[in-house]
Design a protein that fits this description.
mainly alpha, 9 helices, elongated
């Protein structure tokens, strides 16, 4: 998990207010503070470093243009991550126009009994297969998973960032965990050599 980005740094409110008054350096300070977190979010969402860099730059550009509408009572990190995640969601939806919608792919139901798949899944964060597993999720489900398990956002913060209700966030996370668990199970089954499989499951 990356360092928690939703904790307000002491200077954040002052920088945000100064940026609203036209202080470019103050906004640059905000970029420096959160550029890594925003890039990492975009990378997890889009799966490509070049696309992630472009998305992060676009997110900060949009934040700068909209700084007059920023409410200083709100955490700047939550606000800019909301801008970044929604931009990435738009990019993923555009990609879907060229490919089969992932939402139409059948996923088997996975029981909620036991510790749940997220523990094992996120322990493998350094492995390349993580990004492939994330690709099984729809854009908003992917955003919710990344915010929850990489950045430890609360349900309320995710709901605010993605313009969802609290119950909708919980529902999306539940569905996403099921999908990830099934994708993990499928990968594990594919990795088992035929000679090691139970006799009755081998192709005769």
């Amino acid at each position: 998990m990356y360092p928690r980005t939703t904790e307000r740094c002491p200077e954040e409110a002052a920088w945000a207010l100064a940026a609203q008054r036209g202080d470019v350096q103050a906004f640059t300070n905000l970029i420096t503070k959160y550029e890594r977190a925003v890039y990492n979010l975009c990378y997890r969402m889009l799966g490509n470093p070049n696309d992630a860099e472009d998305a992060a730059q676009e997110a900060f550009l949009r934040a700068y243009k909209a700084i007059d509408r920023y409410d200083p009572r709100r955490k700047f990190s939550t606000w800019v991550m909301s801008i970044a995640s929604n931009y990435c969601i738009d990019q993923l939806r555009k990609r879907r126009l060229l490919t089969l919608s992932m939402d139409d792919m059948p996923f088997l139901d996975v029981s909620d009994k036991g510790p749940g798949p997220e523990g094992a899944f996120f322990q493998q964060e350094q492995k390349q297969e993580v990004q492939a597993l994330l690709s099984h999720l729809g854009p908003k489900d992917r955003a919710a998973i990344v915010m929850r398990y990489w950045y430890d956002y609360s349900y309320d913060e995710i709901a605010e960032a993605l313009s969802l209700t609290n119950s909708a966030v919980k529902s999306r996370l539940h569905r996403a965990r099921r999908s990830l668990a099934q994708a993990m199970a499928d990968r594990e089954n594919q990795a088992v050599p035929a000679q090691h499989m139970p006799y009755e499951t081998q192709t005769l």
